[in-house]
């Protein structure tokens, strides 16, 4: 309990330092700048309070969250089976790992022109970019989990005449679950970063679209307020992933 309380105080202190640096950059160091005043904490928090009273803003936030959750579901459906194959079969690993590593190093945003030409402007293009960005942490962590399984458990299951389905569901999947959840948490961070530029592909809803709209309206305080909302939602998603990991894998201990 004492360690948790001390960690909370340190975390609040870090956030307070960040807020102080924000004030200094916009008001303390540039108190006479009109442009800096538009990005000040007072103007931003005032705009944030106004945005939170607008139903349209919540619709933009929900549109972004919906896309992120759908992309994570697609990444899990694709990444976990691929990770099981790569981690469990040496020939599959040798054949596919170089291609996966190559694709992983290509920025998802570099696919934007091609994706728009193939899928058109809309949710499908955004979902593809987000899922492409999020699949690699899940795939690689799943493969790493399979490689770290204790071979004695597999030998014991086979000696008890376990079928392939039983071996998969009762030995392999529970054994790699911690790695899958770690990959999911990493994937959330990557997908959330790619979300905003991906939502600038001509769609009419989402936090990325809303940022472009505030820029076009020169509503700089609303722009920065939206940035705060994006950071808060991403922080909440990461916290939910950490709690899920601690709850589902209780022996692992707190996630960093």
UniProtKB/TrEMBL annotation:
InterPro entries in the cross-refs: MetI-like, MetI-like_sf
Compartment(s): Cell membrane
Segments passing through the bilayer: 68-90, 102-121, 127-146, 218-237
Membrane topology reported for the UniProt record: Multi-pass membrane protein
Pfam families: BPD_transp_1
Sorted UniProt keywords: Cell membrane, Membrane, Transmembrane, Transmembrane helix, Transport
Lineage: superkingdom: Bacteria
KW Protease (keyword) present: no
Domain ABC transmembrane type-1: 61-241
SUPFAM superfamilies from the UniProt entry: MetI-like
Family the entry assigns: Belongs to the binding-protein-dependent transport system permease family.
Name under which the protein is recorded: ABC transporter permease
Origin species: Cupriavidus malaysiensis
């Amino acid at each position: 309990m004492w360690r948790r309380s001390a960690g909370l105080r340190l975390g609040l202190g870090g956030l307070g330092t960040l807020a102080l640096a924000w004030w200094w950059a916009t008001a303390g160091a540039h108190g006479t700048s009109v442009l800096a005043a538009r990005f000040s904490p007072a103007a931003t928090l005032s705009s944030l309070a106004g945005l939170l009273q607008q139903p349209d803003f919540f619709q933009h936030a929900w549109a972004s969250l919906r896309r992120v959750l759908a992309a994570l579901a697609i990444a899990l459906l694709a990444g976990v089976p691929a990770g099981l194959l790569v981690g469990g079969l040496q020939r599959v690993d040798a054949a596919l790992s170089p291609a996966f590593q190559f694709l992983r190093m290509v920025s998802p945003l570099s696919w934007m022109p091609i994706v728009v030409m193939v899928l058109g402007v809309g949710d499908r293009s955004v979902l593809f970019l987000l899922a492409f960005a999020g699949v690699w942490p899940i795939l690689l962590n799943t493969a790493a989990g399979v490689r770290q399984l204790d071979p004695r458990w597999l030998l014991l299951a086979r000696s008890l005449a376990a079928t392939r389905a039983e071996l998969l569901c009762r030995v392999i999947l529970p054994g790699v679950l911690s790695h899958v959840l770690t990959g999911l948490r990493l994937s959330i961070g990557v997908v959330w970063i790619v979300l905003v530029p991906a939502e600038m592909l001509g769609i009419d809803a989402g936090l990325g679209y809303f940022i472009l709209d505030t820029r076009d309206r020169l509503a700089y305080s609303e722009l920065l307020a939206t940035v705060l909302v994006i950071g808060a939602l991403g922080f909440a998603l990461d916290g939910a992933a950490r709690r899920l990991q601690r709850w589902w894998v209780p022996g692992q201990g707190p996630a960093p």
